[in-house]
Amino acid sequence: MKNRLEYLYQGDGRSAWWFRTCLLAFDIATIGYFLFTATAEIDVSLLVIDLIIGALILADMAARAWIAKKRLLFLFSLTTLTDLIVLASLLAPLIIGSNLGFLRILRVLRLVRSFRLVERLDSATKGFPINQRVIVAAVNLLAFIFVVTSMVWVWEHDRNEDMKTYVDALYFTITTLTTTGFGDITLTDRFGRLLTIGIMIFGIGFFLNLLQAIYRPSKVEQTCTECGLSLHDHDASHCKHCGSVIYIETKGQT
């Protein structure tokens, strides 16, 4: 059983690829559900769905913990900690008996798990001229946008008359992140202003990181014929790993 799980989570076969793809689809579906129900009132149907999702997440965590070679490191990893936060938000209504809408947005941290899975699905992007650094930078920016937008929406939808839909929250996040700031939607309460400052400080960093990855990548892909090292500096003439001569096409500095 353990060998089978190791193959499904870490293997390169077709069934392993489909298994991880299904996990990714599950994550995307649960994230959509979490966003849709972030401000909804708790009822029996939502509790049942929450418990089912929680059970599946717990089973996934247990399986990954079982096959982990360093379990202590696994337990304190970012992926595991975010899953534990998600589980806590799912169980909180049963213990406290209230919606805790602001706590429910923490479930969007499930994005961290989804993006880790995306990185493992390398075979899905083979044949496409996409730099892995660009993918990671784009994923980080999207994760930041979705998490912050959810915070803005849940916190402001009943305090700010301009925040009527989730799209309004997304619009505010994007205009703030890009420093456009049209001013038609503003956050006037104290927490909202602090959140706006956080969006500008951290969001610009994620945005610039993506632009740098697209227009000025730090490495170029060129596999060394001797040792197989695939990433090299743009101006490299020899492989740093084995010293062999490599040929990298470049237009030079402008």
Give the topology:
Elements: H1 2-10, H2 14-36, H3 44-67, H4 71-75, H5 78-96, H6 101-104, H7 110-120, H8 132-156, H9 166-177, H10 190-215, E1 220-221, E2 231-232
Antiparallel strand pairs: 1-2
Q: Any descriptors?
A:
about 250 residues; mainly alpha; Helix Hairpins; 3 domains; two-stranded antiparallel ribbon; 2 strands; about 60% helix; flat
Q: TL;DR of this structure?
A:
The protein has 254 residues and is mostly helical.
Question: What does this protein structure show overall?
Answer:
The protein is mainly alpha-helical. The chain has three domains: 126 residues; 90 residues, Helix Hairpins (Orthogonal Bundle), CATH 1.10.287.70; 35 residues, no CATH class. It contains ten helices and two strands. A two-stranded antiparallel sheet has the order 1-2. Helix 2 runs antiparallel to helix 7 and helix 7 runs antiparallel to helix 8. About 3% of the residues have low confidence.
Query: Helix amount, in percent?
Result: 55-70%
Helices, by number, come to: 10
Uncertain ranges: 123-129
Order of helices and strands: HHHHHHHHHHEE
Distance between the termini: 57 Å
Number of domains: 3
* Spatial sequence of strands, sheet with the most strands: 1-2
Instruction: Count every beta strand, where a strand is a DSSP E run of 2 or more residues.
Output: 2
Give the overall form. Answer: flat
Structural class call reads mainly alpha
